[in-house]
């Protein structure tokens, strides 16, 4: 499996963990900063809570996945798999507590 | 540092949902250049993309417009044309595989279905772009490249196509009307048609190779 597909899979995993919780109005649609802002606003989530901080960190790691499309063809950045995996576990704890 | 505009603004096919694609080519990390605003590449990586004949290199070569150059040169123009694009089959297979993963996730009852639809749209667009560059000989880098492949264009109901495009914009720009249950169910039914179309493009790319 190539890096590009791995990064898409990592994003899907994080969204699936976040969206295990039934959000009041709308699920988290993506990890772009604008998708995160929409999710916070629509569901009236505290923007300074730890869960939001974790999601924004994951977003930073996977930014080019979430926001752009053209450069995705170019297989550009290295996968930061361990970091993403750790963030995903922390998000899971936050969502379930 | 060099800054270029590329994408819809250079083609003139802008719409209300269009963003402005900006490329920054830099020597090293520059705190003034935000990844929220720019696609950021090093000079080394840009040269590699040119050497690989990468579709993004072709996109930039054919469409990017210089906005700023710290040395007053047009860096991309000086690079000349990228090498011939030779990975069409490999790239088409990669985006077909990406579609299949999203399709599988949807069938399994994804709780993030709008995201999976957005990946379906991304796969459609990128496989069409690669096909247009590698097989058609008329590269098309637009958002709607899948509608511009003549007899190989995606044979999908335009309404369904637009729902997938909306999903993509929702997931990337956080902009647009939420998808209704009816729209989601109708779109799921169109996925097998997309599967057939992509499979056909991969086979045609192989035959062309």
Detailed description of the structure:
Chain A is an all-alpha fold and 97 residues long. Chain A contains 5 helices and no strands. Chain A has one domain. Chain A has helices at 3-18, 33-43, 50-61, 63-67, 81-96. In chain A, α1 (3-18) packs parallel to α5. Mean pLDDT of chain A is 81; it is low at 65-77. Chain B has 8 helices and 4 strands, in the order βαββααβααααα. The longest helix of chain B has 28 residues, at 181-208. The chains are: A mainly alpha (97), B alpha+beta (209). The A-B interface holds A 2, 4-5, 8-9, 11-12, 15-16, 19-20, 26-30, 32-39, 63-64, 66-74, 76 and B 6-7, 21, 35-36, 39, 41, 45, 49, 54-57, 59, 91, 94, 97-98, 101, 105, 110-112, 114-116, 118-119, 122, 125-126, 129-130, 141, 168, 170-175, 178.
Fold topology:
The complex is a heterodimer of chains A (97) and B (209).
Chain A: H1 3-18, H2 33-43, H3 50-61, H4 63-67, H5 81-96
Helix pairs in contact in A: 1-5, 3-5
Chain B: E1 2-6, H1 8-11, E2 21-26, E3 38-42, H2 43-52, H3 55-63, E4 65-69, H4 75-79, H5 88-107, H6 113-136, H7 158-173, H8 181-208
Parallel strand pairs in B: 2-3
Antiparallel strand pairs in B: 1-2, 1-4
Helix pairs in contact in B: 2-3, 5-6, 5-8, 6-7, 6-8, 7-8
């Amino acid at each position: 499996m190539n890096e590009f597909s791995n990064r898409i899979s990592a994003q899907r995993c994080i969204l699936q963990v976040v969206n295990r919780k039934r959000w009041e109005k709308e699920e988290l649609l993506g990890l772009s900063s604008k998708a995160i802002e929409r999710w916070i606003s629509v569901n009236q989530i505290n923007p300074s809570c730890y869960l939001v901080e974790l999601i924004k960190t994951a977003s930073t790691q996977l930014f080019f996945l979430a926001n752009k499309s053209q450069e995705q063809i170019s297989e550009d950045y290295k996968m930061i798999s361990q970091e993403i995996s750790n963030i995903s576990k922390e998000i899971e704890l936050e969502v379930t507590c | 540092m060099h800054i270029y505009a590329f994408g819809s603004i250079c083609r003139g096919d802008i719409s209300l949902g269009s963003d402005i694609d900006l490329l920054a080519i830099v020597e090293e990390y520059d705190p003034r250049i935000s990844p929220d605003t720019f696609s950021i590449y090093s000079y080394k990586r840009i040269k590699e993309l040119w050497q690989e004949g990468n579709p993004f290199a072709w996109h930039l070569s054919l469409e990017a417009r210089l906005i700023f150059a710290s040395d007053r040169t047009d860096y991309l123009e000086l690079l000349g044309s990228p090498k011939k694009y030779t990975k069409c089959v490999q790239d088409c297979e990669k985006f077909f595989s990406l579609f299949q993963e999203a399709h599988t996730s949807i069938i399994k009852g994804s709780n993030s279905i709008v995201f999976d639809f957005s990946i379906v749209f991304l796969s459609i667009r990128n496989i069409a772009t690669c096909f247009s560059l590698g097989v058609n000989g008329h590269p098309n880098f637009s958002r709607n490249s899948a509608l511009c492949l003549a007899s190989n264009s995606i044979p999908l109901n335009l309404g369904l196509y637009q729902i997938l495009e909306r999903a993509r914009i929702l997931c990337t720009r956080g902009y647009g009307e939420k998808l209704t249950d009816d729209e989601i169910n109708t779109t799921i039914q169109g996925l097998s048609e997309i599967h057939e179309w992509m499979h056909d493009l991969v086979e045609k790319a192989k035959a062309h190779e």
